[in-house]
Amino acid sequence: MFEGITAVVESAPYLLEGMCVTLALVGVSLFVGFVCGIVLTLGQVYGPWIIKRAVDIYVWFFRGLPNIVLLFLFYFALFPMTGFDIPAFAVAVVVLGLRSAAYQSQIFRGAILSIADGQMLAARSLGMTRWQSIKTIILPQSLRLSLPGWSNEYPVLLTDSAVAYVIGVAELLTRTSQVISKTGEPMILYLTCAIIFILLNYGGMMLIQRVEKKVRIPGFGNNEVTET
Fold this sequence. Notes:
The chain has 228 residues and is mainly alpha-helical. Helices cover 80% and strands 0% of the residues. One of its GO terms (molecular function) is transmembrane transporter activity.
């Protein structure tokens, strides 16, 4: 037991660097998923039928395959075909971000469809173009309405980030395993890794809930946010 605690203390800076890599991986992937998710949503709700069909196929593809399969597909097959040496971290961001976009797009889509059609008609009657109506009336409301569902993407991406271990991203789990191979103390080190993940999850959700309470729309059913 004493040897295990010593191993945790001595490897703490190395593990904290891995935690920072994990947070960077989650943060960038969440941003990629957010931007791509909005584009997919607008295409699926307001685009022509061929765009809607393309988005349906995209969502079906990325939601239908496990993360580990997508990582292997992109890291060992698709990106090598380009002839460029893509870092493992960048591949993980692309895979996690694009997969998150598939899920986020459906969250945003549900929020947009929950807004009464009369708001679009009223905006158009005031002389706004369709795009102006979407940008200034529909989209701001839908983003606020979708926050309760969207907030689930953070813990999902946080747990999924550990899968990047399989392609060698130096995130928290990878570094924990490396320390274990040197010290031979799996129990205490894996427990430390688990505790860090729990704290990251808890802290992130607390922050998101504060944002949710601040931007909620009165009367739309997301007024009550439970304090963690």
